[in-house]
Amino acid sequence: MNGINWIQIVSIIGAVIAVSFGAIGPALGEGRAIAAAMDALARQPDAANNISRTLFVGLAMIETMAIYCLVIALLLLFANPFLH
Amino acid sequence: MIASPLLSPPLFSVGPLPITSQVVVTWVIIALIALLARWAGRSFKPQPGRIQTVAELFYSTLDNQIRDTLRTDPAPYLPFIACLFLFVLCANLSSLVPGIEAPTAHIETDAALALLVFCSIIVFGVRSRGLVGYLKSFADPSWVMLPLNLVESLTRTFSLMLRLFGNMMSGAFVIAIMVSLAGLFVPIPFMALDVLVGIIQAYIFAMLALVFIGAAIGETEKNSSKEKT
User: Fold this and answer.
1) For residues B2, B115, B27 and B93, what is the CA-based torsion angle, rounded to 10 degrees?
2) CA–CA separation, B5 vs B138, rounded Å?
3) Contact by Cβ (8 Å): B134, B125
4) Do A68 and B162 touch (CB under 8 A)?
5) At what angle do helices B146-181 and B107-129 cross, to 10 degrees?
6) Cβ contact (<8 Å) for A74 and B204?
7) H or E element in which residue A64 lies
8) Beta bridge mates, B19
9) CB-CB: which of B6, B162, B207 is closest to A53?
10) Facing residue for B6 by CB, picked from A53, A57, A79
């Protein structure tokens, strides 16, 4: 087995690890955020507009972490700097 | 093998400029929105028809959203935010047309949109606070925060770009994998999910641009309008 094969194998494993472990934190965080928003909605249905807008913006912020991991995985798979 | 989402092969070239299919789709979307707006805006009456009712509903919803978020007069910000929302929405949903890829599923379109937001933040900030006031706002709590604020203004633009790109591209990817695995009707729920994600991402993109602009135009206007309410 020559060196290029090893780099490809390690890149694929790295991409898998990045996506799988990178999804854990944002998933937990989004779950907590939605639970808190549901709680707030149940207590104050009048503020539904305000709460849902803040929830969407906050979810987008949390989701950014997962998307960074996705981008790292894509870079490893399709634009690997060590292969060329 | 699925093609790399980071590459986009050129369709044809005008002189030295290679034109990709995303750019053509973008032009078509811009032309369609402009024609629709022109056609709908030609016949506004005191007694609204169907199209005018939809247009007024859209306008007043956005107007209220901007007023709630910025707590100031929404008139200077409405055209930009509405254009962003409409364009991103049409671009996200254009993947429903067979044979057309969503332009936002490629990183160049998202980079251009994020660059627009970045420049507009500066323009609105300078217009609202003046140049010195806007520059001073980077050292807001104390001068220690200066590098952090500078880096933040870059990274939030970057994450705005990556968020739209990642969501739309991963939706297209999931559908491609589903089509290659199982044939006829299996991808339909995923396409429905893609429509939902497209609408939500358009909303989030416009809302985040609005929140960033709101942070740039500062507190002075906010306080004066808070006393009113």
Assistant:
1) 60
2) 36
3) yes
4) yes
5) 150
6) no
7) helix A48-78
8) B12
9) B207
10) A79
Which residue of B61, B88, B110, B163 is the best one to mutate when testing the A interface, meaning the one whose CB has the most A CBs within 10 A? B163
pTM, entire model: 0.83
Backbone angles phi, psi at B10, to 5 degrees: -70, 145
Taking an 8 Å cut-off on Cβ atoms, the answer to whether B166 and A50 are in contact is: no
ipTM above 0.85, yes or no: no
Q: Are A60 and B203 inside 8 Å of each other by CB?
A: no
State which amino acid sits at residue B182.
Answer: A
State pLDDT tens for residues B10-35: 777 777 788 888 888 999 999 999 99
Q: Compute the CA torsion angle B3, B7, B8, B13 (nearest 10 deg).
A: -130
For the stretch B107-147, pLDDT in tens is: 889 999 999 999 999 999 898 888 888 888 888 777 888 88
